[in-house]
Amino acid sequence: MPDVSAAAGVQRVKYLEEQASKFAPAVILFGSPGSGKGTQAKLLRRCLQGPHISTGDMLRQHISEGDEIGRNVQGVMKSGRLVSDDLANHLVEERLQHDDCSSGVILDGYPRTINQAGVLLEMTKRHRFQPAVVHLVVDYEKIVARLSGRRQCPVCGTLYSVTTNPPKIAGICDLDGAALVTREDDRESVIRERLEQYELQTRPILEYFRQTDVPMIEIDGQGSTPEEIMQQVCGALAASGLIAASAVDALSCSEANVRQ
């Protein structure tokens, strides 16, 4: 007669070994200005169950706290330059070791250089994460048209679009009657400069990841709602084996209930 308890014990050990061997997903999110990357970084927490890690947010937090790191990087960030690779790598690796990262993370604004990309691959392996690149692909001309069409109320901060969400009276805020303005970073020349810099900075990093074994997921960032794009990203992550299909199924049911 077979020893049931012994067989159960073997199965238990096998199960624990399989669980221990699993790596949590580390989604490296890329998207140009105006691609909706910031929105997706927040929405993706629904299927990844992990934190959105933004190096920019971490650096701004240090600046607001006035600590040594904040004092050292304040001038660098104000001038638009990148902080050193060593500092960026240190901040990310320290953050990855927090308990809330055990189920996965969404990396936003990192890596910014080839050096950082190489270090990231080393640290994800060291801390048992499976990296995957998610690239939101958009038409730059459509971004220029959309962002340059934005107007903002200087009093209450309400945003309008001259094409999709115009004020009732052209150029006037619906809420307080103030004259709307075009923000400096929404001027066409500024938008095109930002897109050019993004292309120059990001293209080599994407090519670097394409030459590795890191899964590369490209998603059309236009023509769908943010929730629909998030569903596409989560579905692609599940198809790659990076997250459980059940998480996507649960997400779909939740979205369907909300619509009802």
Brief overview, please?
By secondary structure, the protein is α/β, with parallel strands linked by helices. The protein has eleven helices and seven strands.
Overview of the molecule:
It is built from eleven helices and seven strands. It is α/β, with parallel strands linked by helices and 260 residues long. It has one domain (23-147, 188-244): 3-Layer(aba) Sandwich (Rossmann fold). The longest helix has 23 residues, at 188-210.
Helices and strands, with pairings:
Blueprint lengths: L3 H18 L2 E8 L5 H7 L1 H4 L3 E3 H11 L2 H11 L6 H12 L8 E4 L5 H13 L2 E9 L2 H9 L1 E3 L6 E3 L26 H23 L5 E5 L5 H14 L5 H15 L1
Parallel strand pairs: 1-3, 1-4, 2-3, 4-7
Antiparallel strand pairs: 5-6
Helix pairs in contact: 4-5, 6-7, 8-9, 10-11
Which homologous superfamily in CATH is the superfamily? P-loop containing nucleotide triphosphate hydrolases
Order of helices and strands: HEHHEHHHEHEHEEHEHH
Spatial gap, N to C terminus: 55 Å
Instruction: Write the CATH fold name.
Output: Rossmann fold
**Radius of gyration, taken over Cα atoms and rounded to an integer in Å:** 22 Å
Q: What is the level 1 CATH name?
A: Alpha Beta
Main structural class: alpha/beta
Q: Any idea what the CATH architecture is? A: 3-Layer(aba) Sandwich
Low-confidence stretches: 12-21
State the strand order across the main sheet: 2-3-1-4-7
Q: Averaged pLDDT, please?
A: 86
Principal-axes shape call: globular
Number of domains: 1
Query: With helices defined by DSSP (H or I, 4 residues minimum), what is the helix count?
Result: 11
